[in-house]
Automatic annotation (TrEMBL):
Coiled-coil region list: none
Pfam families in alphabetical order: Cupin_8
Protein name (record): Cupin-like domain-containing protein
Annotated PANTHER family: HYPOXIA-INDUCIBLE FACTOR 1 ALPHA INHIBITOR-RELATED (PTHR12461), HYPOXIA-INDUCIBLE FACTOR 1-ALPHA INHIBITOR (PTHR12461:SF105)
SMART domains for the chain: JmjC (SM00558)
Lineage, uppermost ranks: Bacteria, Pseudomonadati, Pseudomonadota, Gammaproteobacteria, Lysobacterales
Superkingdom as given in the UniProt entry: Bacteria
Location of the JmjC domain: 108-270
Signal peptide: none
Length: 342
């Protein structure tokens, strides 16, 4: 049995550190007390009843939210044979969900209930305006996560993420992107919540089955956040999250440091699997060099300096119109391939 390795603490920045310095970094950071002035945080410090009452003031029950329901204190995951999942999703009025969470706090056998990635302005209009945070002009999507004790498997998100604990406590476990080979990631296209997840349970890692996970733990970072604290998770960092109390609320902000016309890179990954992965090794190696030349080490002058500017097409700087044309070109090619296969 390989030994379990304790993660290191996530870097903490002083409360007076300018937020911009944190958000423009590629390093995770805990900011204690960043949102301690929020009315929602003040309500949570007075008790769960007060926090629920405060949230209900903003609840838009005309549009059902989606609750994820699982066994008590669940890790949202696959079922035993990987043919499905260990949870179900059901529509519910936000007020009803809040009432249920409040009622069941003392039940040890209460099912896990989690309202995840619920858009604030849709389901709680006005909440973020009354609990503001200056992100330096970033066009961020604010979401709220409400539930009881639960665990979200380690996964990564494309956007940068500022996670603010508004009620309860949460434990975060982070891994840098380069630890992908050591995390034993599950299926790419059938996932619990849209993102591929690590199959290793950090609370009970099976190091005989997943021996490389020990190396991942050598690079892991962790922190417990209290109500009012915040954590910056840079793009593509893996994160496992535990909600530790019978009632927990987190507000997070997602934003991309890329033009809006850019597609999700995972689409390129899926196309590469379709088009490249099963080529003979020497052809894959040739395409690896091609990708390095045109994508990963792209230099406009070196790659296209010998082509007249008006004739460079996709080798010139992209904009929204060129991106739309390229997307249409790809769709036509894929449809031709489907027709040829059919």
């Amino acid at each position: 049995m390989l030994p379990q390795i304790d993660p290191t603490p996530i870097h903490e920045v002083p409360a007076h550190t300018p937020l911009e310095a944190v958000l423009s970094s590629s390093r995770p950071a805990v900011i204690r007390g960043l949102v301690s002035g929020w009315p929602l945080v003040a309500a949570s410090h007075s008790g769960d009843e007060q926090a629920v009452a405060y949230l209900k003031r903003y609840a838009n029950d005309a549009l059902p939210a989606i609750a994820t329901v699982a066994p008590p204190q669940a890790r949202f995951f696959y079922d035993d044979d990987f043919r499905g999942f260990n949870f179900r999703r059901e529509p519910v009025a936000l007020t009803a969900a809040l009432n249920t969470l409040l009622r069941d706090r003392v039940r040890a056998d209460a099912p896990t209930i989690y309202l995840g990635a619920t858009t604030c302005e849709t389901f709680l209009p006005g909440l973020c305006a009354d609990n503001p945070l200056d992100l330096g002009g970033r066009d961020a999507l604010a979401s709220i996560w409400i539930g009881n004790r639960s665990r979200v498997p380690a996964h990564q998100d494309l956007p940068d993420n500022l996670a603010c604990v508004a009620a309860g406590r949460r434990r975060f476990l982070l891994f840098p992107p380069e630890q992908l080979p050591n995390l034993y990631v599950g299926p790419l296209d059938v996932t619990p919540a849209g993102q591929p997840v690590s199959l290793v349970d950090p609370l009970a890692p099976d190091l005989e089955r997943f021996p490389r996970y020990a190396e991942a733990m050598r690079h892991a970072q962790t922190a417990i956040l209290e109500s009012g604290d915040a954590l910056f998770i840079p793009s593509m960092w893996w994160h496992h999250i535990e909600a530790l109390e019978p009632f927990n609320v987190l507000v997070n902000y997602w934003w991309r440091s890329a033009p809006a016309y850019m597609d999700a890179p995972v689409n390129a990954l899926m196309l590469a699997i379709l088009c490249l992965r099963d080529l003979p090794p020497e052809q894959r190696a040739a395409w690896q060099e091609t990708f390095r030349h045109y994508v990963f080490e792209f230099d406009a002058e070196r790659v296209a300096g010998h082509i007249p500017e008006h004739a460079r097409h996709v080798l010139s700087a992209l904009d929204a119109d060129k991106a739309a044309n390229l997307r249409a070109h790809l769709l036509r090619n894929l449809q031709k391939q489907d027709a040829a296969q059919g």
